Amino acid sequence: TMWDVLSWGGETQALIYNPRTKKVIAVNALGVAPTGATADFYRSKGMRFPPEYGPLAAITPGTPGGLMVMLAEYGTLSLREVLEPAIRMADGYPIEEETANSIERNKR
Questions:
Q1: Which residues in 42-54 are b (16+ Cβ under 10 Å) and which e?
Q2: CA distances (Å), origin 20, targets 8, 23, 40, 91
Q3: Domain span including residue 43
Q4: Which of 14, 19, 50, 86 has the fewest CB atoms within 10 Å, i.e. the most exposed one?
Q5: Is it the case that residue 6 has pLDDT exceeding 60?
């Protein structure tokens, strides 16, 4: 998998080798398109193509679900163990004001 050309909001394809079974497992974390995402729908909105980002994008992201499946079914660490180092590393890293405000507004 070439992680540098992927993003959290995209799609992921991965190969996982299981040393116990000596088999390779393929995971295709392709996003799904909403039923209403037809060519006619986008044309009715004055668009020639579906937008790349936002709620009208052609597909929903597949990467988050794919990563969770790989961790749950084939991982050896807990979600907490996987995320903690990244959370520590990101602590104090500057982000855009708009992003910070959005995070603050959506805290539960």
A1: beeeeeeebeeee
A2: 30, 8, 49, 38
A3: 3-105
A4: 19
A5: no
DSSP H stretches of helix in 1-108: 39-44, 63-74, 79-90, 97-105
d(CA 67, CA 78): 12
pLDDT digits (tens, 9 = 90+) for 36-92: 888 999 999 999 988 877 778 777 788 888 999 999 999 999 999 999 999 999 898
Q: What is the rounded CA–CA span in Å between residue 64 and residue 29?
A: 8
pLDDT (average), residues 26-45: 89
Residue 99 has pLDDT above 90, yes or no: no
3-class DSSP assignment, residue 14: strand
The whole-angstrom separation of Cα 15 and Cα 24 is: 6
Structure tokens at 64: 């988050």
The identity of residue 22, as a single letter, is K
CA-based torsion, 49, 64, 62, 40: positive or negative: negative
